[in-house]
Design brief:
alpha/beta; 7-stranded mixed β-sheet; 12 helices
Length: 388
Amino acid sequence: MENLRVRLYGVRFGDAILISVPDRTSRGRPITRHILVDVGNVLAGEGGQDVVFRPILENVRQLTGGKPLDLYILTHEHLDHAQGLFYGAEKLGIELKARYAWLTASAAEDYYERFPEAKKRRDVYQAILGLVQASPELRTPWIDALLLNNNPAAIDACVAHLRQIAPTQRTSYVYRGCQLRRRHPFRDARFEVWAPEEDTSEYYGRFRPMSFARAQAMADEEGQAVSTEPLPPPGVDTGAFYNLVDIRRSSFVDNLLAIDYAANNTSIVFLLEWKGWRLLFPGDAEHRSWKTMDKHGQLRPVHFLKASHHGSANGVPPADLLQAILPVPAPDARPRHAVVSTYPDTYQHVPDRELLRLALEPRCELYYVDKGVVGDGEWLDVEFMPRE
């Protein structure tokens, strides 16, 4: 194989990317090495269908000849990126292994002991779950999808599996500034990690008060969640009190979105450079992560961009930062590409097709891995010829 190839699989609403890179062995012999990024889709609605995983995993296994991947990368702890390999091993009997693995920093077993502030995300999730279980009228398909995708128990099971697909000494929890030497086998490719910060509480912002939400979930004698209305303290106006209850109860949507944004912003953002080509894979990084990368001087022009967060307005970098990544005019004569992996009507306003048209089409060739474009378990290939 002479060309570098990026294969983006039709996984519905999720990501599954196989990068095949021409390289050399220690003796200088040509070899093709494979990097698998993520593999997963959502757990609710039409955007999440498990039938897509078999043809994808079988294709990966065929291309590697049944040998371990050279590198596996989990960009972040969302099920639409993390659950495919676990599902394949548990349900399909297809277990992929890797020589090296990179997982986002927060996936380390001792992470919350070292960064206790980052644990707030999980504590607030449990409060929201209790509220929604006790108040079913608050549930919508969109809320259910967010709750499922951010479920810590389900994520932990997937991450536990991913921690062992490579030997322990070759499994790394990577972040901006970490040492990459001896953490991959590549000779002709170079890597940079632009994000996340090691302390992911950098991306949280402020959660809104949830004290009443925490009080909403109680268990009846059969173990089912029931709703209990708090009573106003003596001397407090009843109407004003219940207005405050309603305000704090409604804050669960903002907090659930904050949890989702925070997880996206913990994405590993990595640059792969090969034969003068620069390819950027940002997971689901959102504006807060892009701005942090810019603050640390990470951003520079690339030839390939995997569009972040499935083409959402939050995933497309702000205009000035996009100019740093895909400048106009282009700094060289090489073609540039961007690919959006998405599925319609899974999350509100995702993808934002008008924004993508305005922001990306003037800068590069824009492709979609989407319903009606790439079928379930099929793929789109983008290739790069060696040019010095």
